[in-house]
Amino acid sequence: MPKTPDLKSFRRVVVKVGSSLLVDASAGALKRDWLASLCADIAALHENKCDVLIVSSGAIALGRAVLKLPSGPLKLEEAQGAAAVGQIELARSWSTALGAHAIKAGQVLLTLGDTEERRRYLNARSTIDKLLEWKSVPVINENDTVATTEIRYGDNDRLAARVATMMSADLLVLLSDVDGLYDRPPNEPGGKLVPQVARITPEIEAMAGASGSELSRGGMLTKIEAGKIATAAGTHMVIASGRVMNPLQAIADGKPCTWFLTPANPVTARKKWIAGSLEPRGAIMIDAGAVRALRLGRSLLPAGVIRIEGAFDRGDAVVVRGPDGDEVGRGLIAYEAADAEKIKGRSSADVLLILGYTGRTEMIHRDDLVLRSE
Fold first, then answer.
1. In this structure, are residues 89 and 66 in contact, taking their beta carbons and an 8 Å threshold?
2. From CA 344, how far away is CA 318, in angstroms rounded?
3. Distance between CA atoms of 354 and 98, rounded to whole angstroms?
4. 3-class secondary-structure state, position 29
């Protein structure tokens, strides 16, 4: 079994916190002491020069408490209204708890489209990058006041995984009602904790259960799905108990949890993500010389491009075809379709003269390209 990772070795960590951990359902109030202990852990990582991002549920649950709504399922408009009220309380609570350690919190509200549509993805990434540059802790949640399908079907486990891959985090922490993945439901006799998962197989998926609590929309099944997203993009993931004080310190101390490990080569993992998880928005045809250059591990330059097909934006996935029309690979393109059309077949040195701005030298960088043979 590979060595258990050291929490202090990671440089960028996303921590997902569920509603049932933050909110006392019986009292209808925030668990302030627990939140304070978690923020003490975050401050310790921060002091160790680690970027920390929070994906926090709890807006609907807190809004329900503030508004004194009765228990039971909420209609869509009631859930959206509760989220609007609760989000203010949630943001204030995180700001206060982190502020006790002289850390500024920044609120970021996302919908699924912000992580799936490339242009919005890039804008969200730029905003969060700036917050991290300012040494703030982004506190991220679904924008439940306007999202509809997310409230009914979504979960913050997968949102956290998408945030982790978007921000190139090297670790995703899912704090849970249980201390990890068990080989059978943990309430059954004889169930054993799985300490490490090297690869998510059908057997691992079969161990996942359903959602457990009223306030938590994500059960173990959604955590396994999050693990697929994270590890395929080169991000380790750990599921650990959030039912203890100082839960991150508990992970560092070696308390029971389940680690999901990435492949040995994170670049290969990211390329698998590019190849399999993004919908191509267009295609470009390249000449034989460019095909040979790509096979030698080089980037694709504008000079080797023959034809542009489709309407795509900068950062979209496109298919790369050779002069015979066969697919050579797929990659993330550095120019929108109109600009790519203008500079195709031209030297990289001509880009400034043609477009009026200095773009990337490469049409597709080698790190953003997956060849069919890879």
1. yes
2. 15
3. 49
4. strand
Residue 170: helix, strand or coil by DSSP?
A: coil
Give CATH for domain 279-371: 2.30.130.10
Calculate helix-pair angle for 32-47, 76-99, nearest 10 degrees: 50
Q: pLDDT tens, 138-171? A: 999 988 777 665 443 357 888 898 899 888 899 9
Which amino acid makes up residue 25? A
Cα gap 338→340, rounded to integer Å:
5
pTM: 0.74
Distances (CA, A) of 9 to 4, 48, 303: 11, 9, 42
- Domain spans of the chain, in order of start: 7-271, 279-371
Give 287-348 as a DSSP string.
-HHHHHHHHTTPPBPGGGEEEEEE---TT-EEEEE-TTS-EEEEEE-SS-HHHHHHHTTS-G
For residue 128, what is the enclosing H or E element?
helix 118-133
The residue type of 75 is K
299 within 8 A of 365, measured Cβ to Cβ: yes
Per residue in 216-263, pLDDT (tens digit) is: 444 888 899 889 888 877 899 999 999 999 999 999 999 999 999 987
Indicate the class that CATH gives domain 7-271. alpha beta
